[in-house]
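Handout, section B. The chain below has 112 residues.
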Amino acid sequence: MDEDLEEIKRRKLEQMQQQQYAAHAQAAQQEQAQAEYEAKKQAILRQILTPEARERLNTLRMTKPELVANVEAQLIALAQSGRIQTKIDDAKLKALLMQLQPKKREMQIKRV
């Protein structure tokens, strides 16, 4: 009876260890895939952006990460479709960012 109980405990422990190992391996694989994706993305951005434009994106990433992610995705899509012929400099990137940012409403207070 005690031997059966010990055998059940041992099997359960082995099963839990195997599940934990599988989960760890899957997490490591996802992390590696994410790192490869980031490396490819940065390589494409290096090809299509001047150093000043890349610096502007990196600076902007601290305050507006969702906007930068959107811009990067659009730039990469354009580059992969062959629609970008020359490198995008800081001025062009600045103009693109201005177009993509939501319009701000200006309020004017008139004193009577």
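Note. The CA atoms of residues 32 and 38 lie 10 Å apart. Compare this with the example in section A.
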